[in-house]
Amino acid sequence: MKSKSILFLFVLLFIQKAFAESVNISQIDNSSLLLDQNIRVYISITDNKGLPIKRVDEGKITVSESSDEKNFKKVKVQSFKPEANYERGINFLLLLDNSGSMYFDLNGRETSDEEKTRISQAKRAVIEFINSIKNPADKVGIASYNSYYEVYSMPVSDKNKIINYLDEIKKPSGEEGWTEIYSSLYLAAEDFSQISGRKAIIILSDGENRPFYVHTGKPHRDFGKKVFKYQEAIEKNIIEGVSVFTINYGNPADKKDSGLKSISYNTGGVVFDAYNEEELKSVYSKIRERILSEIMITYKAGMEPAEKKYVKVEMTASDNSKVSSTRYYISSMIFGMPLKESTPWLLLAILIALLLLWLLSMIKFKNRNTQPLLEILDAPRGTIVSRTLALTKNQTVIGGSKNADLTILNAPSVKEEHATIVFDQKTQVYALKSKEDVLVNNKPVKTKILESGDVINVGGTTIVFDEGEIKKKR
Is 395 exposed, middle or buried (0-12, 13-18, 19+ CB in 10 A)? Predict the structure, then answer.
C-alpha cells in the first residue's frame, strides 16, 4: 500500500512538472548588433494548459548570455515590454503546400469537387486569417511550394493584395508536384533577410519532404543535384531571425515530416495539427494570438568573441520551480564580436574602413559612368541577361519578360514588367514606378525619384542606380 502511495505521488509530481508553465525564446533579433549592440529577445510564456500568458512579473525573468553554451553570464535587461508586437507589428509569411496531394480531399482521395480539396480549404482558412488582422502594423506575405518555391509577395500592409494572389496558386502539372519543404523554408528565410522586427513563417504541409532530384533523378531547375537538409533550413532561419510555425494538415493517418518538426522547435516556433477546415482556421488564429502575447526583452550583447552567442531566459514558475529556454544567434560576422563604447579604436578602424569604401565607390562612379545606368551587384537566384544597363530611353523596363530592357529570369516573384525607370525631360530626373512594392534602400515603395547610389531590390536582385553626368547638367 505504501509503495502504491509513493508511486501515485511520483506520477502526480511528474504530471505537474510536465504541464507547468513554460518559457520559449521565439526569436532573437540581432539586426541592431553592430549599430548599438542591442539584442531583442522575443519570449512566449504559456500556462499549464499550453495557453499563452500575456503578462508576467519582470522580476521572475533573468537573461544570460554565453559564447560557449556552458558558462552563462547574467545581462542587464534594458527594456521589458509585454505584448510589444501589438505596437511594433508582425511580419507573417504564409507558405502554402501546393504539391499534387493538396488537390485530394482530406481522406487522400481524388475528388471532382474542387471545394473539397485540401488547397481550397487552405485558401479559405488563409482568407479568414487575413481578414481577422485589424492591426495596421501587421503585414502579410504569401508564397507556395511544390517542386519549386514561389513567393508572390513578401509581407505588405495591403491585405486585399495578398488575398488576390491566392488565385495565382494553380494546380501543378507534370513533375512540378513534388514537395520541397526544406529548400523552400531556406529560400523563404533568405527572402526575409531585408526585413527587420518580428518575423514568422507559417508553413502548411500535408506530408513529408519529397525532393525533386531524389524522386525524379533529374537536376532541379534551381539547385541542380543539391538536396537540402532540414538542418540547413534551421540554420538559415536562425541567421535571419525567423521563427517557423508548422501546420500539419490532412488525415490523422498521413505521415508527418520529422525534419519539419525539428525546424519549428529549433527556430522558436510551434507545431500544430489540423484535421478539418474549422481546426485549420482555429490554428492560424492561435498562432497569431501566441505571437501577440509575446514579451520583448532588450539587452546589450556581451564582448566575448564568438561566431554564435547563446541566450538563456529563465523564469520562476508559480510553483517556484525554474523553467528556461536557450537559443543562439549569429554575432558579428565581420570581427567576430559586437561593438561597444569601450572599444574606440575598433570603432575608429571600422569608420575609416567604411570611409575608404565610400571614397572608392565615388571614384569608381566618377571615372566610369558618364551616362545614367543601372548596375547589377547581386542576383541570388535569378539569372541576369546583362550586368549593367545604360539608361538611354525615356522608359526602361525591369522584369521577367525577355522583352524587358533589364531581364531577370528564373525569379518567380518578378513580374514580366515589374518596375519601370522613367526619365522626365523637363525636370531632368529619373523616377522608379511600379504597381508592386519594390524595395529601394530597404523601404517598400511604388514610386520614387532616384538619386545616385539608390539600391533597388527586384525579386532578390540588387540593382544600383547611377545618374552619371546628368546631375551636372541640371
Answer: exposed
